[in-house]
Design a protein that fits this description.
Strand order of the largest sheet: 13-12-9-10-11-14
Distance between the termini: 39 Å
Shape: globular
Radius of gyration: 20 Å
Number of strands: 14
Largest sheet: 6 strands, antiparallel
Number of helices: 11
Order of helices and strands: EHEHEHEHHEHHEEHEEEEHEEHHE
Length: about 325
């Protein structure tokens, strides 16, 4: 049994690394280790708290998969957990390379990742599964205000709210990647991230809605766990969806005075705000370890803490005797 874990593109995900370290050592063995990769491990706070870290190139590099496979093979990696959208399709398309060395890739299917990476396909998926979606406008017939975003975007980059045609430059209009969508006013709707755990059979085992009270650079900075109608709605419409595996995060808008729900995005990975769900006792890292290393079944879990408030703040990690390498 390979008991070590590799988390790719670790960056600033210190909490996630610490959660996996804690659960892996508690459930498997004291000498089980969590490793990370990053473009520059020496400047990655998550890599500093990991049990070990490796420098890798960009996912677009020709040798990216070979490098990861070599790391996994030489370090007895049993589970590989990716954390950024851009590398997901590449990894799942090379799943066999990891299977061949006994490393399990904790990632949804090719079809699911394609749906998640293309916001146009995401809207179709939501519509097919009982969700409302914002109306998409033709560029020649835009209704204002309109929310503009790239169909293949990530991390809340290149988003624009336009109140009139004067707010849209020619470059945006000419960009075929851009979607022009119905704006859902904040006075009428609350924004939620929903952390969902899917087992090996793509069955839902936990649903945690997190109210996004404030965000910074696309990540939640103030949030609240909420048990409301979203839990039942998500379970009813998204249980047993073939291809969903592990942690799935949904971005939803819910009307403040009725039960109208709009689907916005799906991310087939751990989101930046997952620490709130973990602290509410929705222990996705432990369930991944139990399923994929210990071969245990996971029961449905609904006893997570509601009304748990997250107030994020900056902290410092200081490295002594650091030698800058050019």
């Amino acid at each position: 049994m390979k008991k070590n874990i590799l988390i790719t593109s670790a960056g600033r995900r210190v909490s996630l690394i610490n959660y996996f370290k804690k659960e892996l050592k508690n459930l498997v063995a004291d000498d089980a280790r969590v490793f990370c990769t990053d473009l520059n491990p020496a400047l990655s706070s998550a890599c500093q708290v990991a049990d070990g870290a490796f420098r890798v190139g960009k996912f677009t590099d020709a040798d990216y998969i070979d490098t990861l496979v070599h790391i996994c093979k030489t370090n007895e990696i049993g589970l590989l957990i990716p954390t950024i959208d851009t590398e997901l399709l590449l990894l799942i398309n090379n799943k066999n390379a990891f299977d061949n060395i006994g490393c399990k890739l904790i990632l949804s299917s090719v079809d699911i990742i394609k749906i998640c990476r293309d916001k146009r396909l995401t809207n179709i998926f939501f519509s097919q599964h009982g969700f409302n979606v914002p109306t998409e406008y033709n560029k020649s017939n835009i209704v204002y205000p309109t929310f503009i975003k790239p169909y293949n975007g990530s991390s809340s980059n290149n988003l624009l709210l336009a109140n009139s045609s004067k707010d849209i430059c020619e470059n945006v209009l000419a960009n075929s990647d851009m979607m022009f969508l119905e704006y859902l006013p904040k006075n009428d709707y609350d924004e939620y991230t929903v952390d969902i755990y899917y087992n090996k059979l793509s069955q839902i085992k936990c649903i945690v809605p997190r109210l996004r009270m404030e965000t910074r650079h696309g990540e939640i900075s103030k949030g609240l766990t909420v048990k409301n109608f979203i839990v039942e709605f998500v379970f009813k419409n998204l249980d047993n969806i073939s291809g969903f595996i592990g942690c799935i995060t949904l971005q939803l808008f819910a009307h403040k005075t009725n039960s109208t729900i709009y689907g916005i995005e799906i991310n087939p990975r751990f989101g930046g705000g997952y620490p709130l769900s973990y602290l509410a006792n929705a222990n996705f890292p432990a369930w991944i370890i139990k399923e994929y290393i210990l071969d245990e079944e996971i029961s449905f879990y609904a006893d997570w803490k509601e009304n748990l408030l997250l107030l994020r703040h900056d902290n410092e990690l200081v490295i002594e005797n650091y030698e800058k390498k050019i």
